[in-house]
Amino acid sequence: MPLPRWVLALADDNGCSGSTNAALTAVTSLPNLDERALVAEAQAGSRAAFEELVRRYDRDVLRLALNLMKRPEDARDVYQESFLKVYRNLHRFRFECSFYTWLYRIVTNVCLDHLRRRQARPEDQAPETNTGHHDEGITDFFERQREHRPTLDPERSLMGQEIKARIARAMERLSPRERVVFEMKHYQGLKLRAIGDMLGTTEETVKNSLFRATRKLRNELGGLR
Amino acid sequence: MSTPEKNVKCKDVAPLLVFYACDEISESERELIEAHLANCKACSEQLSEEKELQAALTSVPQTADEVDASGILLSQCRSELEEALDDLSAPPLQEHWRPFGWLRRWMALRPAWAGALLVFLGVLAGTQVVPWLQNSSGRNASGQAMNVRARQPLTPDQLSGMQISGVNFLPTQGSDSPNVQLQLNAEQPMVLSGNVEDSDMRYVLTYVVKNGDRFDAGTRLDCMDALKAATRDEQVRAALVNAARNDQNPAVRIKAVESLRDAAGEDDVRQMLLDALEHDSNPGVRVEAVNLLVGSLDREAPEAGPSSPDGPVVVPTPEPGDDASLERVVRVLQQLQRRDPNRYVRLRSAAALRQIGPREVQ
User: Fold this and answer.
1) Closest-CA residue in chain B for A11?
2) Which of A196, B19, B138, B194 could form a disulfide with B198 if both were Cys (CB 3.0 to 4.6 A apart)?
3) Range of the domain at B9
C-alpha cells in the first residue's frame, strides 16, 4: 500500500529517502533544487514541487501561527488557509521578493485577519487569558514539564509559570499588528526590514509598532524583575 | 568625540534603547548611544532594564514549543493540506444540466415545505389557471367579451326605453342569415346576440324599423340590413314596407326597398314599389324601386317558359287580382317612361314595358 505523501515528506525530512517507489523518488529528488527552481516547477503545475516548498517552510509557519493564535485549532486553520492561498496564487508570484517573504506576507495577513476577528468577539479570546481555566492549563503544562524534566528546579519552574502567565496577559493588551511584529522580531528572529516587507509596510512603521508593543509590555510587566 | 555626540541628551537616547537592545539601529546611532551611555548612568540602567525585559520575554517557553514539541500537529496539518490540495486538483464533476435542480435539492432537504408548496400549487392551478384557460379559449372562439342571450323576450316597457349603441354583424358559416350583436342600453346595459332567425332578435330589429323615429339612421340601416334575410316574416315585411313608404331619410327608404328584394313579388311589396315610383320625390328611391320591379317581373317571366321548352308557351291563367295589378304596373311604367325626371328611370320603365308587352299580347 503506498504511503501517504505527508509520510513520505516526513521520511524525507528525517533523511530516509532512497526508496524504490517512483513517487518517493520524485519527491526526494526535489530537495536538491533551490527555492527559485522549486517555485518555477510548482508554477508549472508540479504538485511535488509545491509540497516540497511546503515542507521547507511549514514548520516556521505553524510555529508563527501557534505563537500568535495560541490555540492549536486556530493555528491549523491559519496553516491550511495560508498554504491554500499560496497554492491558488502561486502563478502570480513574480520573484520580486523571496518566496519566503511572499509566503510570510500571506501567513501574517491570515493571522492578522484571525486575530482581528477574535478581537471583535470578546467571547472568543485566546486561552491564555487571566481566567481560572487558563491558569489551570498553564499549571498542567508546567506539571507535565516537571515530570518530563525531573532535574528542573521546582522553585524556578514556579517562578517561570508566574512570569509566563503575566506575559500572556500582557501580550493580550497588544494590537494584532503589534503582536505580529513582536512575535516576528523576538521569537522568529527576523529583522525589522524583513518584517516590513512581509507586512507590506515600511521599516519605520514596523519600528513604531515594536516600540509601542515594548512600552505596553513594560507597563504591564513593570515589576517583572 | 565630536561635538554633536557631546550634545546628545537622555531624551534623545531613551527611545532608541529599545532598538539598541535588540540590535536594530544604524551604526551612527550606535556610536551616539554608546558615547552617551559611557557618561550617563540613568540611561545605562534603562538599557539594562530593557535587556532584562527582552530576555524575560524571550526566555518564556513559546506556545509552539509547548503544544507541538512532538510534531504531531505539524503532521496533522500536512495531512489536512494534502486532502485539501487533492480536492482542489480533482477535476470538477461533470454534472448533466438539470433544470430546476436547485428546486429539487431544496425540496429534498425540506420535505414538509415541499409538500405544502405542491398542495398550494395544486390549489392555485385548480382555482385560477383552469378557469382562466377556459375563459381564454372561449374568448378566442367567439370573440365576445360578454355574451348575454336574451332568453326572456324583452318587454314592451324595456323596448320603449331601449337605446341601441351599436350593431355588429358577426361572420357565420353555412348560413345566409347573419349573426347580429346588439349593444342595448335598456334598464341595464346588455349585449343581445343571435341569429336573425331567432324570434327575439327579429322582434327587436323589427321594433327598431317600426319605430324609426326613435333611432338614428345608422341603426335603422343596420337593422334593415339584418332583416333582409327575414322578409318571409309578414311583420318584418310590413315594417320594411312601412319604412320604404314613410321614413324621412331617403337613404333609409332606399335601404328598405333594397331589403325587400327577395319579397318583391309579394303584393304588398309591389304596391309599395308602385307607390314609390309614383310619389317618392327621391330619384334614388325610384331607381331602386324600378329595379326591384323589373327584377320581380324578370323572375316571374321564366316561370312560364322553361317548363316546356319544346311545346307551346303556356301562360298561367291570371287570377282576377293579377289583372288589376298588372294593369297598374303597366300604367305606372308608362307614366314613368313619359314623365319621370330621371332618365335612368325612364329607360328602365321602357325596358320593362317591352318585357311586359308580349305577355299582354299572348
Assistant:
1) B75
2) B194
3) 3-54
Helices (H), chain B: 3-7, 10-21, 27-39, 41-59, 63-67, 72-89, 101-109, 111-124, 130-142, 156-160, 199-210, 217-227, 234-246, 250-259, 267-279, 283-300, 320-339, 343-361
Arithmetic mean of pLDDT, B276-299: 84
CATH code at A219? 1.10.10.10
CA distances from A197 to A59, A96, A100, A202, B343 (A): 20, 11, 11, 7, 117
Asked if A80 reaches chain B (Cβ–Cβ under 8 Å), the answer is yes
Contacts of B68 in chain A (CB under 8 A): 62-63, 66, 72
Reduced to 3 states (helix: H, G, I; strand: E, B; else coil), residue B184 is strand
CB contact under 8 A, A185 and B22: yes
The predicted-structure confidence for B327-344, as pLDDT tens digits, reads as follows: 888 888 888 888 888 888
Contacts of B205 (CB under 8 A, 6+ apart): B180, B182, B196, B223, B226, B227, B236
Residues in chain A within 8 Å Cβ distance of B60: 160, 163-164, 167
Residues A62 and A117 in one domain: yes
Evaluate whether residue A10 is within a structural domain: no
Q: Which of B209, B230, B251 is the last residue of a domain?
A: B230
Domain count, chain A: 3
Q: What is the pLDDT of residues B9-48, one digit of tens each?
A: 888 888 899 999 988 999 988 998 999 999 899 999 999 9
Q: Domain with A77 in it: what CATH number?
A: 1.10.1740.10
Position B138 in a domain? no
The answer as to whether A167 is a domain residue is yes
Contacts (Cβ under 8 Å, ≥6 apart) of B306: none
**B85 interaction partners in chain A (CB closer than 8 Å):** 47, 50, 84, 87
Is residue B26 in some structural domain? yes
| Residue B150: CB atoms within 10 Å | 20
User: Over the stretch B104-148, which tens digit does the pLDDT of each residue have?
Assistant: 778 888 888 889 999 999 998 888 887 788 776 655 544 444 455
CB–CB contact B79 A6 (8 Å): yes
Q: Which domain holds residue A132?
A: 127-172
Question: Is A224 part of a structural domain of the chain?
Answer: yes
pTM of the predicted structure, to 2 decimals: 0.46
In angstroms, the separation between the Cα of residue B53 and the nearest Cα of chain A is 7
A9 pLDDT higher than 60: no
In a shared domain, residues A62 and A116: yes
What's the distance, CA B150 to chain centroid?
26
From B24, B82, B89, residue closest to A4, measured CB to CB? B82
Task: Look at A80 and B61 and tell me if their CB atoms are within 8 Å.
Answer: no
Please indicate, yes or no, if residue B62 is contained in any of the structural domains: no
Confirm whether A31 is domain-assigned: no
Residues of B with a Cβ under 8 Å from any A Cβ are 15, 18-19, 22, 24, 49-50, 52-54, 56-58, 60-64, 66-68, 73-82, 84-85, 88-89
Please tell me whether residues B220 and B276 are part of one structural domain.
Answer: no
Residue A188 shares a structural domain with residue A152 = no
Residue B33: inside a domain: yes
* B62 vs A163, A187, A224: nearest CB: A187
Contacts of B84 in chain A (CB under 8 A): 80, 84
A81, closest residue in chain B (CA to CA): B81
